[in-house]
Amino acid sequence: MTGPIRPETATVRLSRATLRDLPAEVAVPDYLDDETPVGVVHIGVGNFHRSHQAMYLDRLLAARSDGAVAICGIGVRPEDRPLLMALQEQTGLYSLSLFAPDGTVDTRIIGSLRNVLLLPDAPDDALARLCDPEVRIVSLTITESGYVEDATTGRRAADDRAVRVETADGLTTPQTAFGLIVAALRARRTAGTSPFTVMSCDNIQRNGAIARASVVETARLVDPDLADWIDGNVAFPSTMVDRITPSPTPSQLALVDGVLGLRDKAPVVAEPFVQWILEDDFPSGRPPLEDVGAIFTDDIGSYESMKLRLLNGAHQVLAYVGLLRGHRFAHEAVADPVVRHWLDVYWRELALPTLDLPDGVDGDDYLRTLLERFGNPAIADTLERLATDSSARMAKFVLPVLVDARDRPGFAELTAVILESWVTAVRSSSSDLISSGVPSDVHAAIAGGSPLLSAVDWLRPLSADPALSLAMTAVRETFDALGPSEGLERLLSQAPGCAQEAS
Asked: How does pLDDT run across 214-239, given as a tens digit for each residue?
């Protein structure tokens, strides 16, 4: 999705022909006539990909770096059609506007996305593009739920309906990202073309391993020998990506229209901060992304843990405590001293003490950067968005911190506030976006049908802690007596330890 639909105010549309009409302060790609090959096929052409990976490749193309390549984008879901049609009309061009905390907006036109395809509409063209020997990387942003094999969730390719259908047909007409990848690797193997690298850019720890499992096990349903060949010959580097990229608000869309002086049907807005950490495992070659700020490392795990625990985990604390305090936006919540204090407690008493930071990274500096990003009013990131798919996000981002912090002073009392804030926010929310991502058994447990720690699968690692159960009961009673908002304020005086300020 590109955000809310706004009225057709501008009649002139973004295109190659209208680039010359843009104001001088809007940077435009001057490399569009270069004979740059498409070297990356990206599956999942959403806002995040276009604010992140496509932007990095735009930088390389603008610098005319040796090894710079363009992108072909592919959508696999019918609901991708409106965005892809808009991008097709604009020959892949779109605006990226960075909204800084001081109110300044930096807008540029991105030209690295050379063409886009929708798999259901053009399966042969999509397969041909992946089979092109110039394509060295197939990258993915399909969200965590798009992966069909994941041992941590119990998801199996053999249980996925679409995978079963396409593999029963021998992948003659791929329907999924992984069916398409397997079909292309099979064709490249047959033709004697070296395999491309598969690069997940989704916000999942060990995303390379999960992408590998999804590809290999999809292949195994068609040809076990092909599956073994892929497992032994195709690289699946892990990556860590970071940039807050919300759906544009109506006011942001109007501002972008005003800056451009014409209509962009596929605009992207994001924060200025961006980060990309990659394992350097690209045997078929790769663009020199380090020239434009990406970091290659053999210690991807420490970067993943830092982001998932300090940023994504803190987003969950911010969301539920903030919602209970009556806030809608992240910047409002982080400006509330009560919310800020609980955020500091999570960081200082639970997360940082149990984290090995990457070499050269200062924890205090990182937290200061996070606070600046969370407090950016121009981004207007909603707490509702942060709370989407809450059960899975709490399990992925917060539970590992809590498990590792069980021996920390005050663990039970601090953890009880975090968990009961989540429970209360979900139980009291009228948002379909928040409630729809919570499984029925979790809803039943939250509603009081059974003990939470033993009834919710992902909380069972904490179920043997009687002190935590007692502390959760005490927090719940405080919320019931005073209301969650005042209860969170009252509980500050009882919180163990003294959280240091992160600013």
From this structure: 999 999 999 999 999 999 999 999 99
